[in-house]
Amino acid sequence: MVNPLNVTIAGGSSGVENDRGNGANPARERTSAIAGLGITDLETLDIFDQVSRIAASALEVPLAFVSLLDGERQWIKTTRCRQMDAAPLTDSFCIHAVDGEDVFVVEDARDDPRFATNRFVVEAPHIRFYAGAPLYAGASIPIGALGVADTSPRQLGPAKREVLSGLAALASRQLDLQREAMMDGLTGAWNRRMLAQVVSAEIRRGNRIGRKFALAMLDLDHFKRLNDEFGHAAGDEVLIEFARLARDNLRPEDWFFRMGGEEFAALIVDSSSTKAEGLIEQLRADLEARGPKLGGRGVTFSSGITDHRPRVLGGSDDDSLPRILARADEALYRAKAGGRNCSVCAGQERIDA
């Protein structure tokens, strides 16, 4: 599960704080950095398939793949080598590649005591040779590797090491571009396009493991009037500050999006509408206490909340992103019609601030 809540907003973008060398936990650092990329653990990416095919061809090996490594498992982001997806790090060759800046090479896994009994050596895909170059989030945090493998022992010369390293740099840049394409440049929140991906992934995950989620639509009250009275620069500062407070109040596993204009959304993982309401009302209280004041007046918001439950938890098989959004929007409409600065859960009455 990935999310943007541990990233640092700076200059209208977002990045992960880099405290390597200052006692940081590498696994936690990787997990936080991966969260800031906006790639769900169920996704593969076409660009990684392309890079891995080039790597396999250039290095003349049958297997090539991209893996990201969180604190517990490796996630294969290519359509090939899927049998290694979600493997624990103890079975991962790539975890060794992230520990150094150079290409990591195993010429014959059966002769290497670190890998002789490895699951992927003894079983399919029966790796004998492996080489991996680290992938980076931003400029300095290693989060995974571009790996190539063969079922026969072999060596890797300097020229081919350079090719693998260069392709890994290309894949790293693509990760940064992926993140930038999914983020709102002003507030650092994820954008509407990312919402569609996250909701789809959470629906699939919920069907697989029996987990629900809640979605809250949040709309800043009378924002057009604020812009007209105080100017767009002041309005932008309000949006930025609201996103910051949301980031402070939501949990690390939750997601926060800017839908456009003054409208935002929060996806609350493993939550009912009632539980999500508690987080939203906590945000409302924090906004009142610490939020911006313009002309002596504070900023408020209205919210509409709904939830999605998989069939195993009593939900419907045909629930979808459009239906979830429609329920949340209808609840938001009732919150605004009922006087604003309040929450309404779909199917329930308004919840006053």
TrEMBL record:
| UniProt-listed GO biological process terms | cell adhesion involved in single-species biofilm formation; negative regulation of bacterial-type flagellum-dependent cell motility
A single Pfam family it belongs to is GGDEF
SUPFAM superfamilies, sorted:
GAF domain-like, Nucleotide cyclase
First-tier enzyme category under EC: transferase
* Molecular functions per Gene Ontology: diguanylate cyclase activity
The protein here is known as diguanylate cyclase
Q: Which InterPro entries match?
A: Diguanylate_Cyclase, GAF, GAF-like_dom_sf, GGDEF_dom, Nucleotide_cyclase, Rev_trsase/Diguanyl_cyclase
Cellular compartments per GO CC: plasma membrane
